[in-house]
Specification:
The complex is a heterodimer of chains A (458) and B (466). With 458 residues, chain A is of the alpha+beta class. Chain A has helices spanning 11-24, 83-97, 131-148, 215-227, 246-258, 262-266, 327-333, 365-370, 384-387, 422-427; strands at residues 31-48, 51-69, 72-78, 152-171, 176-194, 197-207, 238-244, 287-289, 312-316, 319-320, 341-342, 350-351, 356-358, 374-382, 394-405, 408-421, 429-432, 437-438, 444-445, 448-456. Chain B has 10 helices and 22 strands. The chains are: A alpha+beta (458), B alpha+beta (466).
Chain lengths: 458, 466
């Protein structure tokens, strides 16, 4: 941890900040420039059948340059920090700015005095892990899965990967931020076969350091998911309750979060545009976007424009509190940025959720299960990109899981869909569990019960 | 093209094999892209991108070592070769020499008429404004429009220790119009996209105003839509709009990497009847100008036209270099990757179902009650079970043999092997559909698809209406 979060946490971050400042220093009169620079290292081991299938070792770097002149914005990026390439990107961004139409709200973030909450997700131990150890871990994960159940017919792949990323952002408005992070993860996709039926089950574990990983849990999860579906068939079409474990509930919360982007709202693409102060969900639901919560794997100190990340309540006791903004959409809405600019090197900042978290309710998974007479426990959803329309709110997804009868898990089910709308699902939440789980994507979510959705099957 | 000298490549490949190894490959890529976005009535942003680098892989037995670098100098490539070799953990040693053959650059059999890079940015911007104005003029209920233009020039070079040296250059141009319509029932969306492996002449082939009107109409139609049914019904898929059905129902399941891992319901079924008679499914990278068109794949093999299912009989899977090598057969030209930062794997190109003989009107007229899906969104499949979903972005009820009311969006779900056996009508009106991006293991590649009008006797509609 560094004492002053405005100072680069290490020499490599300082070097990136130097590169960003070098680009910004080339601004001419009347020109605002922002440079976002990043560098990363990545290793991935995939094993299959007791052998290493592939071992990837890579590094990458890039720069994204935003130029604003006369209220016009231009952008260019390059996958290199070679000085000539960086200079070309600046020249292209300048040229691109001349073709945009003027917009009084467009522009870079101004320092807003919000104190950054220091967070340095960089554990040195991730650097000391050897290639041999990475391979051992992946092989051990595969072995655990294969040994767990005689019906496990194979593993599509088992992997160990780790990455280290550093970024810096600087602009002519005086914003300067940098940060670093390191993560590692393991994942496995188990195949279970009995007769002519084959099912898959996924398990994963993620951490800031190898010691955080729980491969045993990942293996058990993958095996359980693959083996409990034998005999699954479509169920009869009807309306019923849905039990969403944290992993699935987080997906629904992510769709809600995306529709609470100030940009979506300002541009007429959110079904919740005029609903601030009104109940949009059951009173049991409280949802915040809080990258300062260090339990989240997406916790961070700065947003994509270099402003301090902050805690933003979105829904409290079911009532919509407000929307998320970056600097440009904030100006347009007459509000401050909520520190919600998300970006990569190859894109300009846009508004997005960073670390959604649902407040814990009460009851364990089994308690919630016990309240359901006729329902479905969903273990996976498919077709999220084709069956979810965040503008209209319509949701229709393919699911696999187990039926619930009289408060107990019953027969497995597949080749069915569940459908509702986001607006209805939120109001139909009948229970929020106490079992908040911090998921690989950075969301913290408990089990949710949605009382009434349409199941399509036979 | 001269991205890297042949003599440098030979030294880098020799170095990659210095600690042993059965195969080494250098894949170099130089990609320039430009895009322009209009949203909320304003040209918001022009973006230019440049990405170049090389990925080097070394294969030892069943293990692939892979490293990539943005540094295309000999020193940079040698460092990556060393990292890839170390990752592959070859145990052997000794000097290997690699001699590259003449350059293979089959090209595509057609010329790029107007290189997008030569087109003034102002002309690209003018297209956006035109589409915005046209879409908004369709109806007052059109409350929001976004328009996206993008082009790319991708140059690749592949050299491997078998002596193969191949090059290609691909131009892609893409245009999309997305509309939001607002009504008493809330918000609805409509989107229309076009994309081909051609240059700015794309806009000689397509009328911008027509695209904008179709996107607007699609959103407007859904304002009056009723909830989609819930349950099983006959489904008629419209010509051109529904190729993703085959991409999901059988395409992914016929990728040799998934088949060999026992993760496909189509494993061990070559020679068997897997679809209704009359169903012929082809994957064809050579299809000129289509979105999934390639001259060579990302392993340097010339693109091919591969028949996967012929008259209902499964004829072959799709292959990349590694899978083909282990089976002692040639690659089918399906080894593709998102960029130099990714390993290649078996991927589709343009996947389509050949036309039948029936009149499309007759297919609808002979359907008592069902759903007519005119335009599909994306889809997803679990190749192990064969269960797949795909979204309907424009669909109608069929009642008494006539297309009637529009339906709201939703997914359809089915099982690939079952659905292929339930195709009971094929139209004579084949058409390719809009450009797609296929995702697999985190990598996206451009693909095309196409179908004639067809009928599936039963699919599950994931709606909410009883």
């Amino acid at each position: 941890m560094t004492a002053d979060p405005h100072e680069p946490p290490d020499d490599l971050c300082a070097e990136l900040l130097g590169i960003a400042r070098g680009v910004v220093a080339r601004a001419t009169g009347g020109e605002a420039i922002e440079a976002f620079v990043s560098r990363g290292e990545y290793t991935a081991v995939r094993v299959h059948g007791g052998e290493v299938e592939s071992f990837t070792s890579a590094s990458s770097a890039g720069v994204g340059v935003r130029v604003v002149r006369d209220h016009r914005q231009g952008f260019a990026w390059a996958g290199s920090l070679d000085p000539e390439v960086v200079a070309d990107a600046l020249a292209e961004a300048r040229d691109n700015a001349t073709f945009a139409e003027p917009d009084q709200w467009v522009g870079l973030a101004e320092p807003d005095g919000v104190a950054p909450v220091p967070f340095d997700a960089f554990d040195e131990s991730i650097r000391s892990i050897t290639g041999e150890r990475r391979i051992e871990l992946a092989l051990e994960l595969e072995r655990m899965v294969r040994a767990a159940d005689r019906r496990i017919s194979g593993v599509r792949s088992a992997s160990f990967s780790d990455s280290i990323g550093r970024f810096a952002v600087s602009s002519t408005t005086g914003v300067a931020g940098s940060g670093r992070g390191a993560w590692c993860s393991m994942g496995v996709l188990a195949l279970a076969t009995d007769g002519d039926e084959t099912y898959t089950g996924a398990g994963s574990t993620v951490g800031f350091a190898p010691a955080d990983l729980d491969p045993t849990d990942a293996a058990e999860d993958a095996v359980r998911r693959a083996t409990r579906l034998f005999g699954a068939r479509p169920a009869r079409s009807r309306r019923l309750a849905v039990l969403l474990e944290p992993r699935q509930a987080a997906i629904i919360m992510g769709i809600l979060g995306s529709s609470l982007s100030g940009e979506r709202v300002l541009k007429g693409r959110s079904p919740f545009a005029d609903r601030v102060g009104e109940p949009i969900a059951a009173a049991a639901l409280t949802l915040v976007d809080d990258p300062t919560d260090h339990r989240s794997f997406a916790a961070d100190t700065f947003d994509g424009e270099g402003l301090a990340c902050r805690r933003n309540p979105l829904v409290v006791d079911g009532v919509l509190q407000g929307f998320l903004y970056d600097s440009a959409t904030g100006r347009r809405a007459g509000r401050a940025s909520t520190g919600s600019a998300v970006r990569s090197v190859s894109s300009t900042p846009s508004v997005g959720c960073q670390a959604l978290a649902v407040h814990p309710g009460s009851g364990t998974f089994d308690d919630l299960l016990g309240t359901i007479d006729d329902g479905i426990y969903v273990q996976s959803m498919t077709g999220l990109h084709s069956g979810v329309n965040a503008v209209s709110g319509d949701i229709s997804v393919g699911v696999e899981g187990l039926m619930i009868r009289d408060g107990r898990l019953a027969e497995p089910v597949r080749e069915v869909t569940i459908a509702s709308s986001l607006q209805r699902m939120l109001l139909d939440i009948t229970a929020v569990g106490a079992d908040v789980e911090w998921l690989p994507g950075g969301t913290g979510c408990p089990t949710l019960v949605i009382g009434d959705v349409a199941l399509s099957g036979t | 093209m001269g991205m890297i000298d042949a003599s440098v490549l030979e030294r880098v490949l020799a170095s990659a094999l210095r600690t042993g190894g059965d195969f080494a490959e250098v894949f170099a890529e130089d990609r320039r892209s430009s895009s322009a976005l209009l949203d909320d009535g304003r040209v918001e942003e022009l973006t230019s991108g440049r990405d170049r680098g090389a990925g080097i892989r070394v294969v030892v037995g069943d293990t692939t070592g892979f490293a990539h670098t943005a540094d295309l100098s000999e020193a940079g490539l040698l460092a990556a070769a060393e990292a890839a070799a170390a990752a592959a953990r070859g145990g052997g040693g000794g000097v290997r020499t690699v001699a590259l053959g003449p350059v293979i650059a089959p090209g595509r059999g057609f010329d790029i008429e107007i290189a997008p890079i030569e087109v003034p940015k102002a002309r690209k911007v003018a297209l956006l404004t035109q589409a915005d104005e046209t879409a908004r003029s369709v109806a007052g209920a059109i409350s929001q429009v976004s328009v996206n233009y993008s082009d790319s020039l991708r140059r690749i070079l592949v050299a491997n220790s078998d002596g193969l040296l191949a090059e290609d250059e691909t131009v892609r141009t893409f245009f999309a119009v997305s509309c939001v319509a607002t009504g008493d029932t809330g918000l609805q969306t409509g989107r229309e996209t076009v994309g081909h492996t051609i240059g700015f002449e794309l806009f000689d082939r397509y009328d911008i105003d027509d695209l904008a009107r179709r996107a607007a109409d699609r959103a407007l139609t859904k304002l009056a839509a009723r909830p989609a049914p819930s349950g099983q019904m006959p489904v008629v898929i419209g010509s051109g709009g529904g190729g993703v059905l085959f991409h999901e129902a059988c395409g992914h399941g016929l990728e040799a990497d998934l088949v060999s891992k026992g993760a496909s319901v189509f494993a061990g079924r070559v020679g068997q009847q897997v679809a209704s008679r009359g169903v012929t499914v082809v994957d064809d990278g050579t299809m000129a100008r289509e979105w999934g068109n390639i001259a060579i794949d990302d392993e340097g093999h010339p693109a091919q036209r591969n028949v996967l299912i012929e008259d209902g009989i499964l004829t072959d899977y799709m292959w990349d270099q590694l899978r083909a090598r282990s089976e002692g057969r040639p690659s089918s030209g399906n080894g593709r990757r998102q960029s130099y930062q990714h390993l290649p794997m078996v991927r589709m190109t343009n996947t389509y179902l050949l036309a039948g003989t029936e009149e499309p009107e007759d297919i609808i007229a002979s359907t008592e009650r069902g759903v007519y899906v005119k335009h599909l969104g994306g889809g997803q499949v679990n190749t192990a079970t064969g269960d797949f979903v795909f979204g309907m972005t424009e669909a109608y009820l069929i009642e008494n043999g006539e297309v009637t009311e529009p339906l709201r969006e939703g997914n359809l779900i089915g099982n690939g092997p079952e659905v292929l056996q339930r195709i009971d009508a094929l139209g004579n009106d084949f058409a390719m559909g809009p450009p797609g991006t296929c995702g697999k293991d985190g990598q996206g590649v451009p693909v095309g698809d196409g179908v004639p009008t067809l009928r599936v006797t039963s699919l599950t509609i994931g709606g909410t209406a009883a």
